[in-house]
Amino acid sequence: MTDKLISIVIPTYNEKENISSLVSVLSKKLFKYNYEIIVIDDHSQDGTIEVLRKIEKNNKKVKLFLNHPPKGLAKSILLGWKKAKGELIVGMDADFNHDPNIINNLIQEINDSDVVVASRFIKGGGMQNKFRYFSTYLFNMILRIIFAFPLTDNASGYYVIKKKLANKLPLEEIFQGYGEYHLRLVYLANKNNFKIVEVPVYYQRRKYGQSKSNLVKMLVSYLKTAWELRYKS
Ligand SMILES: Nc1nc2c(ncn2[C@@H]2O[C@H](COP(=O)(O)OP(=O)(O)OP(=O)(O)O)[C@@H](O)[C@H]2O)c(=O)[nH]1
Ligand SMILES: [Mg+2]
């Protein structure tokens, strides 16, 4: 698959300290591939946009787009998917939670599957933040047992997907809210009989900057999303 264009889609909000080093790790890892890096920023206030404009000038593979207000993680990612020209889309965070060093493992697995998801909960995976690790593990057990979700890590957010197939899914419905989009994506991909494979990933703590996620809010909206997928879709 090395000849096919791969679009790496990265949403950013206040990631000034992370984005340059992420782009440089990705460039090293992906040198043998045909790729583009699509960054969708949500009008960051910390200078991320200025940093990205400089990167864009020197690196033709990097393309910056600004999300149209209102601000939103999932809708930013959808904008990235729409701008992506690749046959394969890779989704990942900018803060090094999603280890860029294993990106090639994800890309290799897509040869024999439709979707590849990086999982913290299979052999070789894990998470530096042990509280998050155990709470997310428990949450994924509930997703699997009660709501019939397909994966060990349904809320991963680090994935590769074949764009042609992805376009068969109701993308405008999927990409709403915050990280819930990933629950909808894997649930509906499985329901549509896409072949999904998981590869292990070890989540580091974010390198610099602050988390934008609110755990309690996330738990409530993720459970609501799981309920809707299981009983209303
Ligand atoms: N475009 C856009 N990007 C966002 C928004 N919120 C977060 N992001 C980006 O989405 C990614 C994930 O955000 P994080 O704050 O790290 O959230 P998280 O990984 O779920 O939570 P942590 O485990 O606490 O890091 C990062 O690349 C953020 O910069 C948003 O509203 N719009
Ligand atoms: Mg993060």
Structure description:
- This protein is an alpha/beta fold and 233 residues long.
- The protein has a single domain, classed as Spore Coat Polysaccharide Biosynthesis Protein SpsA, Chain A (Alpha-Beta Complex), CATH 3.90.550.10.
- The strands form 2 sheets. A 7-stranded mixed β-sheet has the order 3-2-1-4-7-5-8.
- α1 packs parallel to α2 and α8 packs parallel to α9.
What brief labels describe this structure?
9 strands, 9 helices, about 230 residues, binds guanosine-5'-triphosphate, 7-stranded mixed beta sheet, Spore Coat Polysaccharide Biosynthesis Protein SpsA, Chain A, binds magnesium ion, two-stranded parallel sheet, alpha/beta
List the topology elements.
Layout: E1 5-12, H1 16-29, E2 34-41, H2 48-58, E3 62-66, H3 73-83, E4 88-91, H4 103-109, E5 115-119, E6 126-127, H5 130-145, E7 159-162, H6 163-166, H7 171-174, H8 180-191, E8 196-200, E9 202-203, H9 215-232
Bound molecules: guanosine-5'-triphosphate and magnesium ion.
The site of magnesium ion (MG) has 5 residues, from loops.
